[in-house]
Amino acid sequence: MFHDAMRDEHAESTLRSDRHRLRAFLQFCDEEGIENLNDLSGRDLFQYRIWRREGKGDGRQAVKLVTLKGQLATLRRFLRFAANIDAVPPELYEQITIPTMKNGEDVSDSTLSPERALNIIDYLEGAQPGTRDHIIMLLLWETGARTGAIRGLDLDDLDLDGTHPRFSGPAIQFVHRPDQGTPLKNQQKGTRWNRVSKKTARFIEDYIEYHRHNVIDDYGRQPLITSKYGRPAGNTIRATLYRVTRPCWRGEECPHDRDLDECEATHLDKASKCPSARSPHDVRSGRVTFYRREDVPRRIVKDRLNASEDILDRHYDRRSDREQAEQRSDFLPDL
């Protein structure tokens, strides 16, 4: 019932995350013999917090404080819903205390620097122009979009000739289509047009002509990014990033002093094991950092990446404190 209720307000990715986070709580209840929410007490909730903090459940591995915070917050939302339908006492959810994070503890410091991103794009442009890998990297970098948005693009979402009356150049449209397997994280608010460069548009055209599989998805749509079976899964885009961000993949020397003949990360299905491998989220943070360094107005970045300024500042801007101070000084009068 909780998942059905959340379906009206949240993207499928959020629902999957909630299911995963509540799995440990279900395991705890099973081990403690709790079979009815009517038997759940504040003491049980405190014991669950300790049980989870000590690494019980989910493979018996210790969890980070930020992970514990997320799981307790989801459990709190569930119990609040349960209270609304008279399944638990109204105040029970208040007995879950959410851990307080110290400054920066809940923020990942992983990113793909703008310099590395551009080097990878240059390599792909020379070695594999117009391939799926090249287009995925180009779109992630140029638009700063999330994986789901890139995966959900159709041929009909492209205006590569720049004929749209609102634009003077090529553009693509991200569209929220929850009933057809391609929702956007911010739902209808995420639907937007993004301009792309003429060079990127030309490479997309080459991809469509020479490398794109002529397939349709389960809903009769023509996806831009394809596999020979149709629209690829989101993990395909993530795996692409892990693969192309490894230095050895581009023929560079391993910065981790690994023997490439023995390194497991050289295998495609183990690419994420490379310490230099980066995710699509890291590309997004690298793009925000690039915009910040170029003093692009915050409102423009917010609209283009479809995220609040607070989220962009907290989770994506990877400029050093020194960089930010130097940039501020450019706008301040000399003392």
Which keywords apply here?
hpI Integrase, Chain A, 13 helices, 335 residues, mainly alpha, 46% helix
Structure description:
Helix content is 46%, strand content 3%. It contains 13 helices and three strands; from the N terminus they run H-H-H-H-H-H-H-E-E-E-H-H-H-H-H-H. Mean pLDDT is 85; it is low at 103-108. A three-stranded antiparallel β-sheet has the order 1-2-3, with no helix packed on it. The N and C termini lie far apart (62 Å). It has 335 residues and is mostly helical. It comes from Haloarcula salina. It holds the Pfam family Phage_int_SAM_1. InterPro entries: CB, DNA_brk_join_enz, Integrase-like_cat_sf, Integrase_catalytic, Integrase_recombinase_N, Integrase_SAM-like_N, Tyrosine_recombinase_XerCD. Keywords: DNA integration, DNA recombination, DNA-binding.
User: How are the strands of the largest sheet arranged?
Assistant: 1-2-3
Q: Could you name the CATH topology of the domain at 114-245?
A: hpI Integrase, Chain A
Query: What is the CATH C level class of the domain at 114-245, in words?
Result: Mainly Alpha
CATH superfamily of the domain at 114-245: Intergrase catalytic core
Domain Core-binding (CB): 1-83
Domain Tyr recombinase: 107-329
InterPro entries: CB, DNA_brk_join_enz, Integrase-like_cat_sf, Integrase_catalytic, Integrase_recombinase_N, Integrase_SAM-like_N, Tyrosine_recombinase_XerCD
Keywords: DNA integration, DNA recombination, DNA-binding
